[in-house]
Design brief:
Helix content is about 40%, strand content about 20%. The chain is an alpha+beta fold. The chain has 11 helices and 13 strands. It has a domain of about 210 residues: Ribosomal Protein S5, domain 2, CATH 3.30.230. The mean pLDDT is about 95. Bound molecules: alpha-D-galactopyranose (GLA).
């Protein structure tokens, strides 16, 4: 997380030395289970030690003054304003407030400064961290009474209604519900979940960012979601019990190979295999069979790249190197796709060699440096005691 003194100093420069509270909410990684959340399937994310931090103080009015450290700018709006702000980053804050009001809460005005260290566009959910930190802070300061799970839905609906990305619940759920050292096996239909310790001895998680910035709002994400829904609509005609792709088995989908548009069939064929793959992967983890789990990560990558069509040349290139490097047991693109980073599970002794191999080959091929991102699996959204902050 950012050094608190930077955030506090930004707050004090803008709003003076008044009383404030301090909150953080993290980005996430996801071991396996991609593009399954909005299909009612399973995901296996964890919160990390990078995220968004905010120093915030209610100001007794209905006006929000929000200073973004990244943009070096303040946006001011009224919590009751009918129009959303022009700046997209401020729409996340405005959207969270509107979604809370929709559910009967009355958050008031406040002054705040916020910033983050979760890389933007790296597929680590900087936007969910932003929604979650404001959801959690406003819920606490204005006594709204929402549970963390409800705050996750508030964040997800902010994306749908104020940003235009019809995302699933994974990112916000991980940001709010994460626990140090644990991954969350989440059933995205029922929202029932289990936290599973993840600290395999002798292995490390390595994230390498392609530095290709994805932008889910660009539309392809919503197109994938619509293709999944088109698949469900066709299958539902014969199987009325099917509500989501979660309910479709690979065998059922096969019956529709000639009925569905080829592209819809391809997209659905990835999704119907991904949740069962995740559940089998959880069994590998329970047995401590990390190589078997890693093999499934490679399979996921192939599906995301060839069938789901959300990878890119740079991501495929890094995963290919991972495949050829001794000691890398699994690797795949992570998050929504179209850029962002590759998550790999690597034997501890092989991590340095893998990183060097990728850096060298990537620079030679694309004439730019990839970025290595170090993460530790950490707690979800929290309030910090201001007296203990340094
Ligand atoms: C983005 C979305 C999530 C999820 C992933 C893909 O991160 O916000 O809801 O769909 O993509 O698994």
């Amino acid at each position: 997380m950012l050094q608190p003194k930077k955030v506090i100093s930004a707050f004090q420069k803008n709003f003076g030395k008044c009383k404030f509270s301090y909150f953080t909410s993290p980005g996430r990684i996801n071991l396996i289970g991609e593009h399954t959340d909005y299909n009612g399937g399973f995901v296996l994310p964890a919160a990390v030690d990078k995220g968004i931090s905010v120093a915030i103080a209610p100001n007794g009015s209905t006006v929000v003054n929000a200073y973004s450290m990244d943009y070096g700018a303040t946006v001011t709006f009224d919590v009751n304003a009918k129009e959303k702000p022009a700046e997209q980053w401020a729409c996340y804050i405005y959207g969270v407030i509107q979604e809370m009001k929709e559910r009967g809460a009355q958050p008031g005005g406040f002054n705040c400064a916020f910033g983050g260290d979760v890389p933007l566009g790296a597929g680590m959910s900087s936007s969910a961290a932003l929604e979650s930190v404001f959801g959690y802070a406003l819920n606490t300061l204005f006594h709204c009474g929402f549970k963390r799970e409800e705050l996750a839905k508030i964040g997800q609906m902010t994306e749908h209604h104020y940003i235009g990305v019809n995302c699933g619940i994974m990112d916000q759920f991980a940001s709010l519900m994460g626990k140090e050292g644990k991954v969350i096996r989440l059933d995205c239909r029922s929202l029932s979940y289990k936290r599973v310790p993840f600290n395999p001895k002798g292995y490390k998680i390595v994230l390498i960012d392609t530095m290709v910035k994805h932008n889910l709002a660009a539309g392809e994400y919503n197109v994938r979601r619509a293709q999944c829904e088109a698949g469900v609509a066709a299958i539902k005609k014969d199987y009325p019990e099917v509500e989501l792709l979660r309910d479709v088995t690979p065998a059922m989908l096969e019956q529709y190979k000639d009925v569905l548009e080829p592209i819809v069939y391809k997209r659905c064929s990835f999704v119907v295999k991904e949740s069962p793959r995740l559940l089998a992967g959880c069994k590998d983890l329970a047995k401590g069979d990390i190589p078997a789990f890693g093999a499934k990560m490679f399979e996921t990558h192939d599906g995301l790249s060839k069938d789901y069509g959300v990878s890119c040349e740079e991501l495929d290139f890094i995963v290919d190197i991972a495949r050829k490097t001794d000691g890398v047991v699994g690797a795949r693109m992570m998050g929504g796709g179209f850029g962002g980073c590759v998550i790999a599970i690597v034997r501890s002794g092989a991590a340095k060699g893998y990183i060097e191999a990728v850096k060298k080959a990537y620079l030679a091929k694309f004439n730019k440096d990839p970025r290595v991102i170090n993460v530790a699996i950490s707690d979800g959204a929290k309030r910090w005691n201001v007296r203990n902050l340094k």
